[in-house]
UniProtKB/TrEMBL annotation:
GO terms for molecular function: nucleotide binding; oxidoreductase activity. Residues 5-121 form the Gfo/Idh/MocA-like oxidoreductase N-terminal domain. Keywords: Oxidoreductase. The keyword Lipid metabolism does not apply. SUPFAM superfamilies: Glyceraldehyde-3-phosphate dehydrogenase-like, C-terminal domain, NAD(P)-binding Rossmann-fold domains. Residues 131-246 form the GFO/IDH/MocA-like oxidoreductase domain. This is Gfo/Idh/MocA family oxidoreductase. The lineage of its organism: Bacteria, Bacillati, Bacillota, Bacilli, Lactobacillales. It comes from Dolosigranulum savutiense. PANTHER family: CONSERVED EXPRESSED OXIDOREDUCTASE (EUROFUNG), CONSERVED EXPRESSED OXIDOREDUCTASE (EUROFUNG)-RELATED. The keyword Oxidoreductase applies. Belongs to the Gfo/Idh/MocA family.
Length: 348
């Protein structure tokens, strides 16, 4: 094996193209080629001087290939992963890694037997907005966090074609839930207390076009929500602590923090007219009673996903995305489906 990892991308659609661009900029990899079942995609790759394999068998039987990156529809991840691992390839797999936790266990068993690295591309662990929330949690800028709301809102419906079909593992719980749940599970070290949820089928597809999950931890309640039918967005993050509140509006990282002033001299709020009555409880606090600012960000110095995979292969690092963590996330998704079907709260 050379110092660089020779990698082939299987599935050259949107995410396959994303990986292609990223890997071409990384000194640790040589993109040896691609494979896609669509002949039009194969021809386009060849026109752009990208080697296009004619079959998956050709990919896995090429002894010069070190790593296979899988960016195909969700239902095919398991079979391709196992075939590549059994041919002594390391594997990077797009999320959701499989459609069931049992399928993932089978892949992990094969990877362990073959002594090969298998890693899932849970890339949202690297999102800057998520790291701002981590900063709030660790610095206690707004005190002890006791409630988090994590949302992704859009109005374009379910994207693409196969993501609308249950057969291929479509739906927003698999598509975005696997990211947003993974973030919170990782942040709170998988210390779950209970969960419940609802799925949305507004668009009339076989799979959910949105969902709301109440995932509660030992000391923190959370709401995770995804919608593809929202023409007005709610903030990406809303975080409450014992000493303040923070909001992150979107991926552009615009944010604000409001904290109470710890002073006995502050003015009391004045009653305001609210509908057909008055309220002091819901009146805004007086200006001298709060301070306003932004989130104090911490640099967590995480190496990139691709660098981390490379260093894991060569025994120079530990995977940031561990398979046992991904397995727990998949099990939580299964619990959400169970909670929705049975209309119950699941306790851990």
């Amino acid at each position: 094996m050379s110092n660089k990892l020779n990698i082939v991308i299987v599935g050259f659609g949107g995410m396959g193209g994303f990986h292609f661009e990223k890997l071409n900029l990384n000194e640790h990899y040589h993109v040896q080629g691609i494979y896609d079942i669509d002949e039009a995609v194969q021809k386009k790759a060849e026109q752009e001087s990208i080697k296009s394999y004619t079959s998956l068998d050709e990919v896995v039987n090429d002894e010069t290939v070190d790593t296979v990156l899988i960016a195909t529809p969700n239902d095919s991840h398991k079979s391709i992963s196992i075939q590549a691992l059994q041919h002594n390839k390391h594997v990077i797999c797009e999320k959701p890694v499989t459609l069931t936790s049992e399928d993932l266990k089978e892949i992990i068993d094969v990877a362990d037997k073959q002594n090969k690295v298998f890693m899932v591309h849970q890339n949202r662990r690297w999102d800057d907005d998520f790291h701002l929330v981590k900063s709030l949690y660790q610095t206690k800028q707004i005190g002890e966090i006791f409630h988090i709301e994590s949302r992704v809102h859009g109005a374009n419906g379910i994207p693409g074609d196969w993501r609308k079909e249950e057969l291929y593992g479509g739906g927003m719980l698999y598509d975005w839930g696997v990211h947003l749940l993974d973030q919170l599970l990782w942040l709170f070290d998988y210390d779950m207390d209970n969960l419940s949820g609802e799925l949305s089928y507004i668009l009339g597809n076989d799979v959910d076009d949105g969902f709301t999950v109440h995932l509660n931890f030992k000391d923190v309640t959370t709401i995770v929500e995804v919608s593809t039918t929202s023409f007005i967005k709610l903030p990406r993050w809303y975080v409450k602590g014992t000493e303040g509140t923070a909001v992150i509006h979107d991926w552009d990282l615009q944010n604000e923090v409001v904290c109470p002033v710890k002073s006995k001299e502050q003015s009391h709020p004045k009653p305001i007219k609210a509908g057909a009555g008055l309220t002091k409880t819901m009146a805004p606090p007086s200006e001298d009673a709060v301070t306003k600012g932004s989130i104090n960000s911490i640099n967590f110095e995480m190496e990139s996903f691709y660098d981390n995979f490379y260093h894991t292969v060569y025994g120079k690092g530990e995977p940031i995305v561990k398979n046992e963590q991904v397995l727990k996330t998949m099990e939580i998704i299964e619990k959400v489906f169970e909670a929705v079907q049975d209309e119950k709260v699941i306790k851990f």
